[in-house]
Amino acid sequence: MIYKDKKIIVLFLFPAILFLVGFLYIPFLMSVANSAYNITDLAGINKTFIGWGNYAELIRDVNIHTAIKNTFIMMILCVVFELGLGALFALFVDGIRRGAKFYRTVFFFPVVIPATAIGLMFVLFYDYNIGLFNQLIMKFGGDKVLWMTEASAIYMIAIPTIWQYVGFYFVLVLTGISAIPEDIYESAYLDGITGIKKTIYITIPLIKGVLKSSLILVITGALKIFDLAWTIAPKGVPSGKSYLLGTYQYNMVYEAYRVGYGCAIAVLIVVLGLGISLLVNKFLKEEEL
């Protein structure tokens, strides 16, 4: 068989490995190296070695503390609502025999819309004077609401983020459910297991692998949120209270021209992503035992 020839396997894997090394590992190592410098231009010409200085500043930086807090809030909201609603919708649609394709298309449609387009749409929704939300409130006799406040900004960013990606996890979970053999359900039906009992005792246990993979994707994805958040709340408005790690890093590099400090933030994002992923994997493995 072809799989016995290891040279063929290496040949087919080589382009993917080359891509990963060139566009992931080498840039990350360059970021680690640049994080030891104070770089004041995008070309990296004007730089001064400062060792651990950028990392020491991370500990003192109030905006980083805000960004980390907001990122973890976003992570929790995404786990609960993105994955939670996606799985719930998948369980509902799985029980529908007519019109299932329609629901699949409707739920998945936001995923294919560019994040910046969704961000601009919600900017118009949130506008205090002409926004759709305030227009609806006033139509029913209410007073206009300032949606983007220091306390609510992160949640206003979370709403479109969750709306966009619920369909992605809906499709993942629904695909996992569709892979369950029908004879298992038929045997359960003969034993009198139907309705909610079928979901609890058969469907959910058999899609645990899909749910666990989706959980890791949600958690790591929350660390990388940038384009939609930057469109809705550029430069952490209002008053830097809506910064996420991705948006604050972008602001440091391309607005403040602090490339070295931005590289230190990039390293922090990678370390947090790896650490959380390892913890989740370890927890899930312990649950299996």
Q: Report low-confidence residues grouped into runs of 5 or more.
A: none
Helix-and-strand structural type: mainly alpha
Question: What's the end-to-end separation, in Å?
Answer: 36 Å
Number of strands: 2
**Biggest β-sheet: strands ordered side by side in the sheet:** 1-2
Q: Main β-sheet: number of strands, strand sense, barrel status?
A: 2 strands, antiparallel
What is the string of SSEs from the N terminus onward?
HEEHHHHHHHHHHHH
Helix content: over 70%
Query: What percentage of the residues does DSSP assign to strands (E)?
Result: under 5%
Q: What is the molecular shape?
A: globular
SS element count, helices: 13
Radius of gyration: 23 Å
The mean pLDDT is 91
Write the layout of secondary structure elements.
Elements: H1 6-34, E1 37-39, E2 47-49, H2 53-60, H3 62-94, H4 100-108, H5 115-126, H6 132-139, H7 153-178, H8 182-190, H9 195-206, H10 208-223, H11 227-232, H12 245-255, H13 259-288
Antiparallel strand pairs: 1-2
Describe the structure.
The protein is mainly alpha-helical and 289 residues long. 72% of the residues lie in helices and 2% in strands. It has a two-stranded antiparallel sheet. A hairpin with a 7-residue loop joins strand 1 and strand 2 (47-49). Helix 1 (6-34) packs across helix 13 (259-288), helix 2 crosses helix 13 (259-288) and helix 12 (245-255) runs antiparallel to helix 13 (259-288). The longest helix is centred in the N-terminal third of the chain and has 33 residues, at 62-94. The radius of gyration is 23 Å and the shape is globular. The two termini are 36 Å apart.
